[in-house]
Description:
Blueprint: H1 2-21, H2 23-27, H3 45-56, H4 65-76, H5 78-83, H6 93-97, H7 109-119, H8 141-182, E1 185-186, E2 200-203, E3 206-212, E4 217-225, H9 232-240, E5 246-253, E6 262-267, H10 268-277, H11 279-284, E7 286-287, H12 291-294, E8 301-305, H13 308-314, H14 317-325, E9 330-339, E10 357-365, H15 376-391, H16 396-416, H17 418-442, H18 446-464
Antiparallel strand pairs: 1-3, 2-3, 3-4, 4-5, 5-10, 6-8, 6-9, 7-8, 9-10
Helix pairs in contact: 1-4, 8-15
Membrane topology: Single-pass type I membrane protein
InterPro entries: CCDC47 (IPR012879)
Subcellular location: Rough endoplasmic reticulum membrane
Amino acid sequence: MMHQKSVKLIVLCLMLTQWCLSPAATADSSFEDNDFAEFEDFDSDDDFVEIQQSNVGPQLSTPEEIPTLTEKGLKRDHSVLEDDDDDGIVEDEDEFFKDEEEFEGFDSPDKEDDDLDQKTEPKLTVAKIPMHFRTHWDSYWMEMLMLAGLMVYFINFFAGKAKNANLANRWFNTHRALLDDNFVLVGDDGKMDNEKSGLIKESESLYTLWCSGRTCCEGMLVELKMIKRQDVVSLMAGLMRPQQDQIHIKIDLTRGVMDTFVFFVGTKRTVTKVFKEYSDLSKYCTQVSKPEIRYNVPNGLSVLSEIPEATSAILENRVIITLTKYQQYIDYLHISDQFSGPVQQEDANTLKQPDTKPILWAGFNLPKEGNMEAVKPLLVLIFYLMERLKTYRMSKEGKQKAERNRLRVEEEFLKSTHAARAEAAAQRREEKRKQEKERVMAEDDPEKQRRWEMKEQKRQAKKKAPKMKRLAVKSL
């Protein structure tokens, strides 16, 4: 650093010398010819630096003038530079002017070019990609197909919904007078306030009607199960497996009104299905072989019977005529005093038989053309069967057979739950002994506690002792 400062001082001296010898300097009469006269008016080095920058600055404004001035000064005072070789080394002029500490704010041509390159925005080349989408309607066939499907779905939904509602209201209006003659309340279940009594819409394909206020029954529930016309998928499935609009009538009979028997008549497909699903039919009934010969039922209907006497009484002449005439609309008739719902899975912890109740169920198919007058006699048949069950009584032999069947079912249930009942009984005895022990230990009577402990030890010893069987030996 000391060598560089010496060189700088020499260069400045040379530059000042050249300026003093210039015509502008000689014209000025305020300075003398003395080479060092210009330093006499300055008292400090700081003032010298300010004058130097103000005088020299305009001549060093361009990079081309600086090397020329430097070369002249170096040639004139070459002897001085040779004497100061020991103190410093003069650097190359290109490297000298590239020194960032010497010339602050001075930008080299290469650096200016770099800055210009950085400030210049890059040229973006956009590739020419061909348009793959065509402008005609054939390009949107998938979208049009989806819109058409949605339109068909919504149109079918509203049309199917309206048709189901129309069929349900038509059935209700056709049978309204008959229902009013047999029940006090029609369309009121007593659980909610209905401003307008009538059908209750459970869904778009299910309507219900509750009727009450009649002898020998607690109430009647009518369910109108329509085809799901509002669902396109269900309609398409119905093409492979035909479906029909149905009405299900469920009547809860009063206990003691009917005798103890179970009976079922229906189509062969329905009989096969319900025989496995409902416990009262699977436990008490057997399928009758050739019912068309034995009970004169029309072909295509099967019979499940517990008591043949009761089956003959139900399938009397009037009922047989109705079944024959309206066979296409009849699905099933179910009469039972032991109805407990679908078959429950076997559970070892079940210690009590399910509750049973007497019922009269019926299922009918509604006409496809919507003529509800054609099925009106079937509702009359239901009311006739209700009166028939109220007045019919079996013979003594029939009642005994029904009682034996119920005892048999109860014994089978007890056998199946014997282990569970034994475990429950042992648990109850253990709980009872535990309570007795707590009661004795709570008393302040050591003698009583000792007697109870001795009694408990004897019981445990007797329980652990091997069981022996006594044999009676006859004396000779």
